[in-house]
Amino acid sequence: MAEKKNILSYEGLKELEDELQELKVNKRQEVAQKLKEARAQGDLSENAEYDAAKDEQRDIEARIEEIEKILKNAEVFDEEESEAGTVNFGSKVVLHDIDMDEVVEYKIVGSTEANFLKGKISNESPLGAAIMRKKIGDIVTIEAPDGEFQYKILDIRKK
């Protein structure tokens, strides 16, 4: 079974590559030094510094593995190739939340980069999926467990 492609922007790809480099080059060395210093203290069975360093080492290695898996299946979308006037990957979309009567703005990204607190929503999220390939003026309805919500697309920008 083929693994799911991780759709990334060039910006997201660069961030992951930078994080991977930082983990492999700097963080691994820092933890190795902590382990060396903790071992020098003697008995490892009751050594909290050693246990903490081993936990940190495990977390770093898990994150390295996670990033490598994401990058192995990465597909970078070119924001410039998206159709003008429609919502697509990389689009910044200004929406009017009709129910809350407020204006919100989101950037459409792949699920790997999604971060609601930073205004980045996945194309696979209910709202992201509903507005994909829509145009300015379109109204979309999102069904959620606590009811339906409507959004009107006010503006679409590439950057």
Describe how the helices and strands are arranged:
Elements: E1 6-8, H1 10-40, H2 48-72, E2 74-76, E3 92-97, E4 102-109, E5 120-122, H3 126-131, E6 139-144, E7 147-157
Parallel strand pairs: 1-2, 4-5
Antiparallel strand pairs: 3-4, 3-7, 6-7
Can you walk through the features of this model?
This protein has 159 residues and is an alpha/beta fold. It is built from 3 helices and 7 strands. The strands form 2 sheets. A 5-stranded mixed β-sheet has the order 5-4-3-7-6. Strands 1-2 form a two-stranded parallel sheet. The longest helix has 31 residues, at 10-40. It is elongated. The two termini are 35 Å apart.
Describe the structure using short key phrases.
25% strand, 159 residues, two-stranded parallel sheet, 3 helices, 39% helix, alpha/beta, 5-stranded mixed sheet, single chain
Brief description of this entry?
The protein has 159 residues and is of the alpha/beta class.
**Could you give the count of β-strands?**
7
Order of helices and strands: EHHEEEEHEE
Shape: elongated
SSE class: alpha/beta
Low-confidence stretches: none
What portion of the residues fall into strands of 2 or more residues?
25-35%
Using the CA coordinates, give the radius of gyration: 22 Å
Major sheet details: 5 strands, mixed
Helix content: 25-40%
